[in-house]
């Protein structure tokens, strides 16, 4: 999850502080919650007013929706983590390509980074395949040994 | 003559209105199909059915209700004008159909041109498949199913060299599964009925179709591992250019998701999800036909009232 928020560092997407990130993650996990519910299980060691101010700030940044529930508000994230990530990534790429005089230069860096990421990913997948093959071979050997009297 | 023209305009108007309304509904609600926990094959069938639902439903409703209601209930007086709304929306419908035809023709022309280039110097490969299989040159894409009528599988020389015999056999079985489910034709049909916001649904269908073809190709764990190995090996050969529309590449969709899924494969995985078979649609279709028969008169009258409202 920190990786997801680090994407925001270079984008015009609302910047989030560590406690704001924690609150947003908590709301993603729960689906929706009031401030009292967020504090109820004791995992957040902050004052009621701090949590209230933080979720209110997230609401004002357009990341949460809220509906009145008695004298409090129930907060719900506007986007799923995946949608949030998609918007943040698109925003960062747009900003990267829009920056500077020659937009082809950042684009070439991006292609280079993606190519090396792709190659790395393929190596990792190749390792997984080989590992699975070894596993199957060992299991086959054991099965044959067990079958022999 | 005016009567016939009015009939055409009204029918096209209904067609475009129903098409847009249903398309908008599909764009908003298609993700709900995932709640059903379908098998990959079932998901592919369900997503494609949703994708073409607006086109098929608007066509059927127009032919079954709008045209007869106009023919039977509209007085044949010559003094009634056409109305601006039917003319404008009728033109929109014609534009939509023309755009669909243009997109299909362009996709087919583009595919033929590129496939002809790939097939230069290709020779038949005896792979024991039910489809024509050709071995293309080294620089062609590693493994593709191409064409709508008379589909054929193209395997590049590099792919043949890189894969073991069994890996190649499983990979070919994957392409054969695409051929059996007529995925190239389905892609072409999607081109015919454009609507903003459908790209996400098409991408989800494409991914589900890949996984369904993976499932169809695999019968035991060794097959799954060999298919995963073939995917990883051939990924390194895939050209950067996007493939033309009427082709299905072996390395398509999320590679890591497919490889991970294949490495976790077990025989019971296919049986766990809800499968969709053609006969699953028989009962709902029969109910719909029965309802249509039972309410045909009132529905025709209602359709005619809507027509009057539109023409006014």
Strand order across the biggest sheet of chain B?
1-2-4-3-5
**Would you count the extended β strands of chain B for me?**
5
Q: Strand-residue fraction of chain B?
A: 5-15%
State the separation between the terminal residues of chain A, measured CA to CA: 53 Å
- The arrangement of helices and strands of chain A along the chain is HHHHEEHH
Radius of gyration of chain B: 24 Å
Stretches with pLDDT under 50, minimum 5 residues of chain B: none
- The total count of helices of chain B amounts to 12
Number of strands of chain A: 2
The chain pair with the largest interface is: A-B, 9 and 13 residues
**In angstroms, what is the radius of gyration of chain A?**
23 Å
CATH topology of the largest domain in chain A: Arc Repressor Mutant, subunit A
- Domain count of chain A: 2
The helix fraction of chain A, in percent, is 55-70%
Form type of chain A: flat
Architecture of the largest domain in chain A, according to CATH? Orthogonal Bundle
Beta percentage of chain A is 5-15%
- The coarse overall form of chain B would be elongated
Identify the CATH homologous superfamily of the largest domain in chain A: Winged helix-like DNA-binding domain superfamily/Winged helix DNA-binding domain
Give the fraction of residues assigned to helices of chain B. Answer: 55-70%
From the structure above, extract its key features:
heterodimer; A: 149 residues; mainly alpha; Arc Repressor Mutant, subunit A; two-stranded antiparallel ribbon; 2 strands; 66% helix; B: 312 residues; alpha+beta; 5-stranded mixed sheet; 12 helices; elongated
């Amino acid at each position: 999850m920190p990786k997801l928020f680090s994407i925001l560092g270079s984008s015009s997407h609302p910047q989030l502080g560590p406690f704001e990130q924690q609150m947003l993650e908590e709301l993603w996990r729960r689906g929706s919650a009031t401030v009292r519910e967020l504090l109820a299980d004791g995992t957040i060691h902050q004052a009621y007013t701090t949590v209230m101010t933080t979720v209110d700030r997230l609401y004002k940044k357009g990341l949460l929706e809220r509906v009145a529930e008695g004298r409090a508000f129930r907060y719900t994230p506007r986007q799923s983590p995946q949608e949030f990530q998609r918007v943040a990534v698109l925003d960062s790429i747009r900003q990267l390509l829009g920056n500077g005089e020659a937009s082809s230069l950042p684009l070439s860096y991006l292609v280079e980074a993606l190519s090396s990421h792709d190659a790395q990913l393929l190596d990792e997948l190749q390792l997984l395949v080989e590992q699975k093959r070894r596993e199957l071979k060992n299991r086959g050997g054991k099965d044959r040994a067990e079958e022999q009297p | 003559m005016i009567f016939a023209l009015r009939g055409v305009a009204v029918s096209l108007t209904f067609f475009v209105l129903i098409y847009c309304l249903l398309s908008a509904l599909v764009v908003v609600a298609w993700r709900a199909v995932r709640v059903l926990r379908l098998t990959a094959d079932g998901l592919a069938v369900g997503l494609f059915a949703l994708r073409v639902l607006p086109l098929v439903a608007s066509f059927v409703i127009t032919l079954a209700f709008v045209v007869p209601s106009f023919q039977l209930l509209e007085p044949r007086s010559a003094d009634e004008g056409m109305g601006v709304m039917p003319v404008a929306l009728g033109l929109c419908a014609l534009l939509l159909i023309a755009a669909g035809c243009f997109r299909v023709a362009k996709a087919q022309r583009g595919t033929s041109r590129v496939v002809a280039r790939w097939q230069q110097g290709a020779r038949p490969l005896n792979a024991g498949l039910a489809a024509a299989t050709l071995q293309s040159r080294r620089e062609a894409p590693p493994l593709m199913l191409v064409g709508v009528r008379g589909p054929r599988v193209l395997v590049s020389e590099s792919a043949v060299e890189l894969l073991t015999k069994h890996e190649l056999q499983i990979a070919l079985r994957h392409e054969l599964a695409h051929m059996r489910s007529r995925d190239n034709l389905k892609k072409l049909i999607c081109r015919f009925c454009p609507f903003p916001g459908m790209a996400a649904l098409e991408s989800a269908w494409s991914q589900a179709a890949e996984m369904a073809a993976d499932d169809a190709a695999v019968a035991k764990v060794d097959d799954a591992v060999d298919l995963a190995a073939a995917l990883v090996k051939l990924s390194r050969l895939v050209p950067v250019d996007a493939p033309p529309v009427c082709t299905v590449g072996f390395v398509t969709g999320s590679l890591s998701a497919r490889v991970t899924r294949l490495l976790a494969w077990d025989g019971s995985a296919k049986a766990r999800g809800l499968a969709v078979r053609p006969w699953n649609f028989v009962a709902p279709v029969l109910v719909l036909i029965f309802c249509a028969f039972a309410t045909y008169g009132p529905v025709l009258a209602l359709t005619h009232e809507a027509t009057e409202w539109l023409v006014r």
